[in-house]
Amino acid sequence: MEIIYITDIHGARAHVEKLLEVTFADLYIVSGDLIYSPFYSPNTGMRFLELQDIFHVMRQKDAPNMEIEKYVSSLLNGGLSEELKSQAEEYLRLSERALSVMKEKYKKMETMFSMVRKAPIIVLPGNYDMDLSLTTLSQRQIHKKVIEIEGLRIAGYGGANMRTAGIPEQGMAKFIESESYSEPYDFFSKAKPDILVCHQPPYGHLDRIASFGSIGSLGIARAIEETKPLVVLSGHIHENFGCEYSGSTFYINPSNFGAVETIEGKFMDGGYYAKISIENKVVQKVVLKRVEEYRPYDIVDYIPDGDTLKQVVLDEARYKGLQHNVHDKLSRAVPVTHVEEIKLFNAVKHFFRHYESRETNDRIKFLKKVALIMEEKGTPIAFDLVGSTLFGMAEKGSDIDIVVYYIDKPSGHDADNSIEEKIGDFSRILKELGSDQYQVEVVDAINLKDVEKAILEQDFQSTVTGRFIFYRAICRPVHHRIIRSYEALLDSKDAYRKEMEASMRDVITTLVKTSRHFESFRKYEARLIDLDVPIPQPIRKRLKQYFQMEE
To answer: CA-to-CA distance for 414 and 182, rounded, in angstroms?
Structure first.
């Protein structure tokens, strides 16, 4: 089972949408601070915070344990100055407006989640969130709930043991813990989960703030000590990220997914998430990743090694960027933005992938397994998806059309080589893993060393580099880490890359003219109609533009 975990979303709904499109998993867990501001206007938010601070100071003296909205309402029943009365009435109006806006934002998030067919999505509130049972996300939320997915018990307790300024207290997810009582302890000790999901981390594990020390929950820590869950997923403390292994439990905090301002007033970029691989209730690997535009990047592997956890840094630049909060110029440029034909193709592709099928996800998992086995055997390999799997529209019986990337000494010429000849184990592994179930069609095979040689020599006649650039512009990779360094090399030769990209116009227009390509799109449209998904007019317009390009 593969789980993708993101936390501290901070309203980055569009970024979450990209993540859901370009990744695949058996379960998505979206945890904590789904939204960041309860208003659309920053000015309204600042006014609400100003009024809230006034009444918070008063409440601390009169009734420190009372919800601030109830306290302000009670003030209106007594003698207030005209100015204070006006401020109290304004605060209550804005508080109601905040709850309304928050519900609208959760509704938009639910609309986005409901389009995802490939895997279940569950959510947990953070300290910036309402009680999600009062929203359209109620069927997904796991606050104080236990669910079971693929034999794993998953339990969640959201919120944080702190006051969150700028957010109304009425209707918020409550974290109830004091020196004498802990509701999360009571809940988790009875739930006995395999996967424990919390927003506020347990005390002593990924919970340190430089200027404060550990601020985690003692109750959650005690519950973990007693119940020994397999995995603990937390967030809230963005700078204390990573994966720890203690006792028999993995503690994971991938840092913030949405951008945020830290307690020291620094801006922290986001996009970070974790991918957890579990088989037979044993954690195989945890990968800290980052999504930038439509590209996921592997940053660190955490691999169990006996009683210890082996950390392998895969991307030094991004790892240092996360450590030191430096993110400038890390993102690869969005490919071929100046080639209109490719832009049209990708716009249409992204629409269809919003409705990606479970059958697509199953095929990608199969290819990922093949790639990992090949890598273990010392033969690194990667794939680009083409056909229905690229568009997320695979169904039962669909072929898996792929481009295979392998690494061998440069061939010295531009001729194609048989993938079976160059990688003898490939066909056998496909068969062992069930290629009878999934008919795999290798449409092209590219030696990455040939690509490297052509880039270094700036060979404008290289068809292998032209094919590489074309597939990377429109396709979806599996085991992308094998390809990444060759993309970086290409990006370093900007003039060469752009000249080679420009030549792809002829390739894409030739593709559009094929009847098979046209029929494929008609099939994808028909599948969405079967799901009662209307094709929006802007997408219909782009489809028409796309198929009229040759004119």
So the answer is: 67
The answer on 349 and 241 residing in a single domain is no
Q: What is the radius of gyration, based on Cα positions, of the chain? A: 26
Query: 259 in a domain, yes or no?
Result: yes
Residues 182 and 93 in one domain: no
How many CB atoms are located within 10 Å of the residue 534 CB?
9
Which residue among 76, 97, 118 closes a domain? 97
Residue 322 above 80 pLDDT? yes
Judge if 163 and 79 occupy the same domain: no
Helix (H), strand (E) at residue 405: strand 400-406
Six token digits for residue 285: 């690997």
| Pairing of β 242-246 and β 272-279 | unpaired
Tell whether 179 and 157 lie within a shared domain.
yes
Of 417, 433, 423, the residue nearest 467 (C-alpha): 417
Reported as a pLDDT band with limits 50, 70 and 90, residue 492 is confident
Parallel, antiparallel or unpaired: strands 121-124 and 27-31:
parallel
Q: Which of 365, 366, 398, 290 is nearest to 25 (CA)?
A: 365
Cα 213 to Cα 359: distance, rounded to the nearest angstrom: 47
In this structure, the answer to whether residues 85 and 113 fall within a common structural domain is: no
Reduced DSSP (H G I as helix, E B as strand, rest coil) percent helix, strand, coil of the chain, to 5 = 40, 20, 35
Burial of 168 (0-12, 13-18, 19+ CB in 10 A): buried
The answer to whether 425 touches 379, Cβ cutoff 8 Å, is: yes
User: Which CATH number do you get for residue 217?
Assistant: 3.60.21.10
Q: Which residues contact 85 (CB under 8 A, 6 or more apart)?
A: 76
Do 462 and 502 belong to one domain? yes
Rounded to two decimals, the pTM is 0.80
* C-alpha neighbours within 13 Å on the C-beta side of residue 114: 13
Left if phi > 0, otherwise alpha if psi is -120 to 50, otherwise beta: which for 479?
left
Q: How much is the pLDDT for 521? A: 66
Stronger pLDDT, 392 or 515, i.e. the higher one = 392
Cβ pair 235, 7 in contact under 8 A:
yes
Across the beta sheet with 400-406, the strand order is: 440-447, 400-406, 381-386, 476-478
Question: What is the domain count for the chain?
Answer: 3
Q: Give me the phi and psi of 331, to 5 degrees please.
A: -70, 135
Nearest-angstrom CA–CA distance, 544 and 113? 28
Q: Are residues 158 and 203 in the same domain?
A: yes
Tell me the residue range of the domain where 80 lies. Answer: 42-97
